[in-house]
Amino acid sequence: MEFLYGDSTPSPLTSNFLEFLRDAIDFGVFALHVDDEIAVIRERSQETSLAADAEIARLDTLGDAVAEALGGAPKGATESETARCAAQLGATSAELVALAIAAVREKLEGQRAVLSGEEAAQRDACFKALESLLLAHSPPESSISTRIERGSDRGYSAWRHGETEFGLSWRVDLGIPPGHAFAGEAPMEKLAAHVEVHAPEQTGWLKKEVKLKAQRLDRLLLTEAMDDGHTVTLMLRTDASGVQGLDLAVDPKAGTVTATRAGASGDPSAGVFDLPAEDVPGLVGLAEKVRSAAGELVATRLADATLEDRELRQEPTFAPFVEQLISFMAPIVQEVSRHSLTSTELVLRRLISRERREEIFVAKATLREKFVPLRPERRGLFERLGLDTLAPPPPSKAIPRTPEENDWPPARAELPRSDPPPPLKPLR
Asked: pTM for the whole thing?
């Protein structure tokens, strides 16, 4: 889908950035709250450890005092009852002190386990908040690829992988509903019915030679499919062994196909080959069907997320990630603001048809409200978005409009206000 700026000039945006911005701010605020809660949990953990250390020190002092008192008391002869009693008292005292110290340490480990569980719960909550963001949106300018793979149970699994320029990488699992092309064991029967490819094959009994031979793709197994947004790659095999078959890389937009014959070592028919021109349209159509079928799959859960190859859930704090996310969004926000015809709103226009545009807008004040409750130093992270700037934007050159090209004024659709994330309750 194509989006224009508020003054109708073209933009590079292909998705509703204003919705992403709103939800990304919600996530950022939530993640910073999680940081604060984790800081409180760690402070409690430190206080608990210090209290345990102090208790153990007092027990050690008590044991030393008892031993010193027994050592200085008159006990008579070495074999006297007083000496034997003092020895028993010393041993009992040392044993009781050791048991008390062990009890303190056991209690400390239990408290640490509880606090560690509370911190893990906070991290899980932040991960779920990120999941809500990424299931609904892919950040602008992300590199996205979708992969479908045949498993050992002959069923198919699917996932989407994304990467951003600021180091975020994630994988989202995709659900395959009943009746979908990838829900059965033989998706090529639906996707490539009667599609043929002329591929090299070794023929002959006495005089072996390689000739082009027509192969029906709906009789092959699809072992893997991938769409990176430009090229649709298909791995097709004659059977479950995965040795013989075809690898096809199709660029539907350019209408080009790279074909490779897969085969065992020494197979003279294996390798890249030139397709007959008449085969290309069918393969382009197949790639478009695979892309369309993959696009119908719904994201079900965030499987993992990393930042610069580190698991995001285990980051010491989430503030640096929030800062990177804001730094990534800031230039886009400022460009949208520059092209908006009012200084108090961010405006985009979506092309619904050739004759109609829908205007989408969100008030800057609505976005500011989301992070106003944060501490001043936390709010400062959001300042670079420029949502406090109320100066009128510089004049911009708008595309001339004619009544035949546009409905005027355009329909306006304000982004629905999202409820703020619920406040985190300390897990005490």
From this structure: 0.83
